[in-house]
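Dear H.,

Thanks for agreeing to be a second pair of eyes. The structure we're designing against is below in token form, covering all 434 positions.
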């Protein structure tokens, strides 16, 4: 019977996926938290004839992709980069397996603000690592440096081996102050390793690996990097690498997720030499290298600035017609994603369906406690380039959907607010023609 239930679940999931695909036309604008809209040049790179993983051309591009990744996360030469075939979740495995030892009763401290913090916690449990948590004060809040300080100052609290920070939890679209949290860790738990999940933040939110003293971080290709999904990118400090290589008392419990197996592979590609452990995702790495090239050539600070500017315009436009956000403070609003509450009297499914008829696709809620009360809009990469009207189109679609659902507001107010702010910020020109 259980097998039949599993089959039924898979069939229902497939039916739902196929129904969503029917609604997504080639002209649809994909504005979910990832995958996101992808630049044509990245697609062109992806579609190139597959090269050998030891071809000189690919070796060079893999090396470039590793180097550019370090530039984007603002890491110095002591940070070691990895690009692995797999989703961002692979990063949790590699971090936990590499830096914790169940045999030593190691503990991980999870700074928990939502769904993905929960998953980081569950990954630690899977490796028999003891878990402690600091939970955000409410749904939509993040763990603050003050709360972390209070926890680490408590002499009765167990000492963590690993401190896990989610930079932007995609389920609530709220960002943590990673720099300030790291400073507290260095002061009060200097022996603990600091791990940062940057899947929904890197390349869109400011992150300073070396300056903040992060030990290990992970992200994925399908969000602000502007590449299709399928790659997990990681950076590890000299201290973390030394521990995994020489400091452990017990072998790393993972095979594929063992970064020590991958280290010589990455070192070879950085040195522009062939190497092999498991066949890399050649086409995706070539595409990622093109996406990273665009970011580095534009300038990391410029890319971060336009993400911030567009998010402010979008969030201000929605406030103009009375919409509210899941993130409880203005300071914690993410620049890569916004979680918008359904206004009173508006049924979520009806609103998102109406918005889809305008060719715009958003994501529903994800946090288990409030998932039916909000939707999520991703604003990353190509869609927030200077001159892009993608977010304007989103605002127009939201106004249309709300009107269809009977929500009372000043029609056109959000669109006008967005246009004016975007024009003032020099994000859009010829606003009168839009």
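And this is the sequence the design step returned. I haven't edited it by hand at all.
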């Amino acid at each position: 019977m259980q097998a039949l239930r599993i089959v039924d679940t898979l069939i229902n999931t497939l039916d739902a996926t196929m129904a969503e695909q029917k609604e997504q036309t080639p002209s649809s604008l994909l504005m979910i938290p990832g995958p996101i809209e992808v630049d044509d040049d990245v697609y062109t790179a992806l579609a190139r004839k597959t090269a050998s993983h030891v071809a000189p051309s690919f070796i060079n591009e893999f090396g470039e992709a590793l180097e550019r990744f370090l530039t984007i996360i603002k890491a110095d030469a002591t940070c070691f980069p990895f690009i692995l075939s797999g989703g961002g979740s692979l990063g949790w495995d590699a971090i936990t397996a590499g830096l914790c030892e169940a045999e030593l009763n190691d503990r991980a401290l999870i700074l928990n603000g939502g769904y993905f913090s929960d998953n980081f916690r569950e990954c630690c449990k899977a490796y028999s690592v003891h878990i402690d948590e600091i939970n955000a004060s409410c749904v939509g809040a993040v763990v603050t440096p003050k709360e972390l300080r209070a926890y680490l100052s408590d002499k009765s609290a167990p000492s963590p081996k690993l401190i896990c920070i989610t930079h932007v939890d995609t389920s609530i679209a709220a960002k943590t102050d990673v720099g300030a949290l790291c400073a507290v860790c260095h002061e009060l738990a200097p022996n603990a390793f600091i791990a940062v999940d940057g899947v929904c933040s890197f390349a869109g939110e400011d992150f300073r690996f070396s300056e903040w003293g992060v030990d290990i971080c992970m992200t994925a290709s399908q969000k602000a990097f502007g590449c299709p999904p399928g790659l997990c990118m990681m950076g590890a400090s000299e201290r973390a690498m030394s521990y995994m290589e020489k400091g452990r008392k017990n072998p790393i419990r993972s095979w594929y997720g063992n970064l020590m197996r991958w280290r010589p592979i990455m070192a070879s590609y950085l040195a522009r030499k062939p190497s092999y452990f498991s066949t890399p995702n050649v086409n995706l790495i070539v595409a990622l290298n093109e996406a990273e090239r665009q970011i580095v050539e534009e300038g990391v600070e410029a890319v971060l600035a336009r993400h911030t500017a567009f998010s402010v315009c979008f969030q201000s436009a929605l406030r103009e017609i009375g919409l509210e956000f899941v993130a409880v403070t203005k300071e914690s609003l993410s620049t890569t994603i916004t979680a918008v509450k359904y206004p009173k009297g508006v049924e979520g499914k009806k609103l998102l369906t109406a918005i889809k008829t305008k060719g715009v696709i958003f994501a529903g809620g994800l946090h288990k406690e409030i998932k039916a009360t909000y939707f999520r809009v991703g604003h990353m990469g190509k869609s927030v380039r200077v001159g892009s009207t993608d977010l304007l189109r989103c605002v127009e679609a939201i106004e249309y959907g709300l009107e269809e659902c009977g929500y009372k507001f000043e029609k056109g107010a959000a669109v006008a607010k967005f246009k004016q702010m975007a024009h003032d910020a020099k994000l859009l020109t010829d606003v009168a023609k839009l």
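Two observations from my side: The two ends are 57 Å apart (CA to CA). The CA atoms of residues 295 and 302 lie 9 Å apart.

Warmly,
E.
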